[in-house]
Design brief:
five-stranded parallel beta sheet, Cation diffusion facilitator CzcD-associated flavoprotein CzcO, FAD/NAD-bd_sf
């Protein structure tokens, strides 16, 4: 069943989809629809509702540059406040009227003859836009570990990204698998409620103190009423975060002060030498995501919390047995094991020009031209595509740069009278080869650890290898010589 063809389809209503919609409207493109699989906008900030869920990038930076929010309650806003900001922004710019909720995309196939895309939704509806902007990002498919015997477990299990709020953890014996960004936020919250918490840690993260504090009313008033105050504060945060890229991308030895701060954080919050040893990483800081928390280490010192590092040997009907023979009676297992990052993109069902499938284009690994366009996929754009993630600053900045890139591509099509635009293979190859040469020298490939930044071949397909202003300078505007316009 086909419907009227919108000129542009945006997939997802998180920061990427929302920002793209606003960008289109500002640029005079009003014939578009946003397809959102959930029943509400917000993307990951709608889906993730676990206890303690908050951003680990300062709020004034983790927001749109064109829609500053002087009223952030604190330095690092909690999830409900971020979602409210997104909803207000959508309403202000009248984006909600373009959103179709409960619209999960099954597949996307380019029609060479019609020069349009066939976007098939769950249920069989087909839309036929001229262009697609994927704003789904990579943090939306939960990753689960392969635990021996998990099918026998008789208790309750759920992932942090799909928190079961109907299950009361009070007085329960809980096992938490994983110590990633979500776990260090929810563990301190649930440790106060449960009878016992067994935290299964494979690799300890580097954790620094979180400079989080409430903004007093006079400060919020100043941000709102004093011209340029909020902008200046945001700019200060940007450059402070940007400075961290030096150690990550140029020379890991320059991250010495970061490691010193993290080690001091452990010493100050944990007195027990054995526990200190368990939570101290043995790899270069920055190799895995650096986390922020003031209450995670104190939670681990509670008498009802055990940090288990020997690994899971077996899951039984009501317990977990470790590799060194300990057995923990367990009522509930909570997975804090993150997301399938590279797989989330690689599993997209996309068929391009000439019937080529995305998986064929990515047979040697996922990549895109400037993280946004792919040879063989006309009028197909990705926000938060390969190698646009960050280890040091706000991805909202990267999203805004990509939005400008997409808009410049659409203008090239409009001004030339062409039907389609796609990157030249040789231009995409040059860009990606140059980028990966830089990545091989960065901390993520030399730091001595395995992380979700790397694919199964050990290649970083996730992060940008330099400063964000470099990405802005090179990618905010599409270069005509890097693209083919098809009449």
């Amino acid at each position: 069943m086909s419907e009227r063809a919108p000129a542009i389809v945006i997939i997802g209503s998180g920061f990427a989809g929302l920002g793209m919609a606003i960008g289109l409207k500002k640029a005079g493109f009003h014939d578009f629809v946003i397809l959102e699989k959930s029943e509400a906008l917000g993307g990951t900030w709608h889906d993730n509702t676990y206890p303690g869920c908050a951003c680990d990038v300062p709020s004034h930076m983790y927001s749109f540059s064109f829609e500053l929010n002087p009223g952030w309650s604190r330095m690092f806003a909690p999830q409900p406040e971020i979602r409210s900001y997104m909803e207000r922004t959508a309403d202000k710019h009248r984006v909600r009227e373009h959103i179709r909720f409960g619209a999960a995309v099954e597949s996307m196939e380019y029609d060479d003859a019609a020069k349009r895309w066939n976007v098939t939704l769950a249920g069989g509806t087909v839309l036929t836009p001229k262009a697609i902007v994927s704003g789904i990002g990579a943090l939306h498919i939960p990753a689960y570990p392969d635990l021996p015997g998990i099918e026998r477990f008789q208790g309750t299990t759920f992932h942090s990204a799909e928190w079961n709020h109907d299950y009361d953890l009070t007085g329960k014996r809980v096992a938490v698998i994983g110590t990633g960004a979500s776990a260090i936020q929810f563990v301190p919250q649930i440790a106060k409620e449960v009878e016992h918490l067994a935290l299964f840690q494979r690799t300890p993260p580097w954790i620094q103190p979180k400079p989080d504090r409430k903004f007093p009313a006079p400060v919020r008033a100043a941000f709102e009423k004093v011209p340029g105050a909020a902008r200046a504060f945001r700019d200060g945060i940007y450059w402070a975060l940007e400075a961290r890229a030096v150690g990550f991308t140029i020379d890991p030895r320059l991250s010495g002060p970061m490691e010193w701060l993290a080690r001091r954080h452990i010493r100050r919050q944990i007195a027990d030498p054995e526990l200190r040893a368990k939570v101290t990483p043995d790899y270069t800081v920055g190799c895995k995501r650096v986390l922020l928390s003031n209450d995670y280490y104190p939670a681990l010192t509670r008498t009802n919390v055990d940090v288990e590092t020997s690994g899971v040997a077996e899951v039984r009907e009501h317990s977990i047995v470790t590799a060194d023979g300990r057995e923990y009676e367990v009522d509930c297992i909570v997975y804090g094991t993150g997301f399938k990052v590279t797989d989330a993109l690689a599993e997209l069902r996309v068929t391009g020009r000439g019937g080529v499938k995305l998986q064929e284009l990515w047979a040697d690994g996922i990549e895109a031209h400037r993280g946004t366009t792919i040879p063989g996929l006309p009028n197909f754009f990705m926000l938060l595509g390969p190698n646009t993630g960050l280890g040091h600053n706000s991805v909202v900045f990267m999203i805004e740069v990509q939005i400008q890139h997409v808009l410049s591509c659409l203008r090239l099509v409009q001004e030339s009278g062409a039907d389609a635009i796609e990157p030249r293979p040789e231009a995409s190859r040059r860009f990606n080869d140059r980028m990966h040469r830089r990545l091989r020298k960065a901390v993520w490939n030399e730091g001595g650890c395995q992380s979700w930044y790397l694919d199964d071949k050990g290649v970083n397909r996730t992060l940008w290898p330099g400063a964000t202003f470099e990405f802005w300078a090179g990618s905010r505007k599409a270069k005509p010589e890097e693209y083919t316009l098809r009449p």
